[in-house]
Amino acid sequence: MSAAAIPAILNQLLELVLALLAAPLFLGWVNQCRAWLQNRSAPSIWLPYRNLEKLFQKDAVIAENASWLFRAAPYVMFGSMALAAAIIPSLGTALPSAIVADAIALVGLFATARVFVSLAAMDIGTSFGTLGARRAMMIGFLAEPALLMVIFTASLISASTSLAAIAEALVGRELVLYPSLGFAAVAFLLVLLAENARIPIDNPATHLELTMIHEAMLLEYSARHLALLEWASALKLFNYAAIGFALFLPWGMARGDAGVVELMFGVPILALKLLMAGAGLALIETLSAKVRIFRAPEFLATAFLLAVLGMLVHLLLGS
Amino acid sequence: MLSAAFASQLINLCAAVLLLLSFSMLAQRRTVALVNLFTLQGLALAASTLVVAASTGQNHLYYSAALTFALKVLLLPWILHRLIRRLDVQWETEGRLNVSVTMIVGLLVVIFAFGLAEPISALATTVTRSTLGIALGVVLLAFLMMITRSKAVSQVVGFLAMENGLFFAATSATYGMPMLIELGIALDVLVAVLVLGVFFFQIREQFDSLDLQHFESLKEK
After folding, report:
1. For residue B221, is pLDDT > 60?
2. pLDDT grade, residue A258 (50/70/90)?
3. Suppose B136 and one of A195, B42, B113, B207 were both cysteines; which one would form an S-S bond, judging by CB atoms 3.0 to 4.6 Å apart?
4. What letter does residue B71 receive in the DSSP assignment?
5. Which pTM does this prediction carry?
6. How far from B145 is each of A105, A233, A299, B20, CA to CA, in Å?
7. Which residues of chain B lie closer than 8 angstroms to A297, CB-CB?
8. How far is A283 from chain B (nearest CA, A)?
């Protein structure tokens, strides 16, 4: 094994472990910020962990007519999110697993998770599950092209569809104003809000029947299945944040040839970025009102439009 | 003088902001917000003209930036806001506007404009040549806005946005028009808004509404 491979493998392991552990913490931080902004007394930042611990200790209750799909979906969802966390560069760009899958495969991974959770929600046959699944698929099929376009804009600049290579190219350049990346960043923010069941599209904090999307799909789950799904949702939010950092704020990320020390410097920088992103997300969620489900296509059409505009502007202006 | 590379980045940024504002105007349902967006567009236009002036040393562009600022950021929005207050249409919205479809059509229009401008920018020698496509896009988007709107005030804002696009096209293709023509156009736009302001009151008197859909049933039965 060569000397350069050791930091790369260390980076890979560290990133995966960090993503798994930090994802609930990030969710807790967002919830805490939201509570502060809304003049409520904030729950503990460790609440998502306690919730997971509680759920893992309970006995699972499964509906009589549930098929294998219902049982498998939480594992598929968690597996895809963990795999996605391994592909997305968050600390350093030297990722051995980045060769395996590029950004398009990443979008595919998100889609796999979505399809399985939606199918599982329809599996039991309750009306709420079906309703949530249908809405989630609608949001998903509108958000996916927008996400792809965002990634293509960044790939046009760095001439690669691998997220690690994109981040490597973007972190290495001198500071240049890229209007196209600005468009893509706004589009990405809209996609992030829609895909993670955040407030303009869905409210993550409610079980109010007729407006929920994501929560409706999880209604039938309990115990370890529910714990895995909630952990996976937290991981999904973390993954999206990490994609955002890799594409739009790559500064402070260890370059491909960096050693262990630079890698360790990446950890506090990533923590700082997450703190800012969580506060920003809470602010957006506090300032905006949930839109009607029929306005969701408009919201996501805006995201798609901005992403395509970003691409066009890049082609026209070369920047 | 700014360095050429940085100036061209700033101009590109201004152009991108202009395009973005055109799209937000296309998607905006509320008339008052539309006027505010128009103000912002004027500001972006003035800023881009200023950057072009500073980077090329064309002195007359400073005057034209100042003129743009005075007319499109201060005077015209003030007149429009006053008109909206006087007509009592502060809460007017475009109910029938289908935003998603309009935006997709807008996207196609912008692609068309970019394709159209490409051979022209290839011939031009200005530092701003690549923004010509965006300028054409802004003009066509303003056209589209006028087509999709049914309220009189929004149509006038669309007309003014089109003038913004033309002005930007002139700056990016040839570093602006001669001062005399620019002054003439500025005066024209001002007079047009004043005259249309009078028209609004006439229209409302005739139809009890500023919705131009009523014009379609004008023919005698």
Report:
1. no
2. low
3. B113
4. I
5. 0.83
6. 38, 40, 19, 14
7. 100
8. 22
